[in-house]
Amino acid sequence: SVITPLRGLLSTKSTVPLAHTMGTKSVEERVGLPPKPKKPLTPYFRFMKEVRPKMMAENSEMPVTELIRNIAKQWKTVDESRKKRYEEEFKKEQVAYLQKRTQYDSKLTDEQKENIELMKETIAEAKEKKALRKRLRDLGKPKKPSSPFLRFLNEERVKKPHQEGNYKDWLNQVSAKWMSLPEKQKDSFIQVSHEEMLKYRAELSKWEKSMIKLGHLDVVRHEALLDVPPPKSRKRSAKP
Predict the structure, then answer these.
(1) Taking each helix axis from N to C terminus, what angle separates 183-214 and 148-159, rounded to the nearest 10 degrees?
(2) Residue 196, class by beta-carbon neighbours within 10 Å (0-12 exposed, 13-18 middle, 19+ buried)?
(3) pLDDT score of 165 more than 80
(4) CATH at 187
(5) Which of 43-57, 68-82, 215-229 has the lowest mean pLDDT?
(6) Sorting pLDDT into bands at 50, 70 and 90, what band is 9?
(7) CB 120 within 8 Å of CB 127
């Protein structure tokens, strides 16, 4: 069969994490809409915004978590007249915000609303996958070995690194070189990958058995769960 080493390597989903493609844009901006009106700061966050720069300047070595705790302590001692000022500012801006938000929502079409919901689901799914990858690393899941082509690609990267800005062209060149590589040379990469894959499968099987014993069934492949032997029944002691 024809090997297609570029499959998936140039797709956005497989090579560029969702967070990298989206940056700090809002959900609406990510689907091509203008950003929705921002909610006004609550009284506490107004206070924080006001005092934080000075506290950071005076305590440059202080960890952020401790800085936030100190601000929270200060907030408890703020006099009521100052808190009332923050509250009045918040209420005034809240009225304006609700008006702008109502106008914004009323202009959205059903299709745009659906796109927003789909984007939210996509973001949530990406976060779940990221959390799962971290959990698998923490649990020590064996790392899957590279494919023959990726091994070849890594060697080429060392020999001739791609220039900034033309990664796609460089990848196409490496792919073409791989496709025209003599079978004997290609077999050496295939053999190494095959041997490491056998080792990986053995390690994965061992790891999954340990995960099953520890109760982490959600990180185990379905087929591994099917092979789990039934629990041994305890022998009842003979009655006297």
Answers:
(1) 110
(2) middle
(3) no
(4) 1.10.30.10
(5) 215-229
(6) very low
(7) no
The span from the CA of 19 to the CA of 16, in Å, is: 8
Q: Which two tokens stand for residue 69?
A: 């705790």
**For 35-67, how does the pLDDT look when each residue is reduced to its tens digit (9 = 90+)?**
999 999 999 999 999 999 999 999 888 899 999
Tell me how far the alpha carbon of residue 122 is from its chain's centroid. Answer: 11
* Averaged pLDDT for residues 93-113: 96
Q: Quickly tell me which residue has 């779940």 as its tokens.
A: 128
Pair of tokens at residue 68: 């936030």
One-letter amino acid of 200: Y
Residues 100 and 154 in one domain: no
In the listed set 56, 84, 108, which residue is the last one of a domain according to the structure? Answer: 108
pLDDT, mean of residues 11-28: 56
Kindly report whether the global pTM for this prediction surpasses the value 0.85. no
Whether 126 is in a domain gets the answer: no
String of DSSP letters for 181-237:
S-HHHHHHHHHHHHHHHHHHHHHHHHHHHHHHHHT-GGGS-HHHHHTPPPPPPPPPP
Hey, what long-range contacts does 131-135 have (CB within 8 A, 24 or more apart)?
A: 132/219, 135/219
Residue 153 CB burial class (10 angstroms; 0-12, 13-18, ≥19):
buried
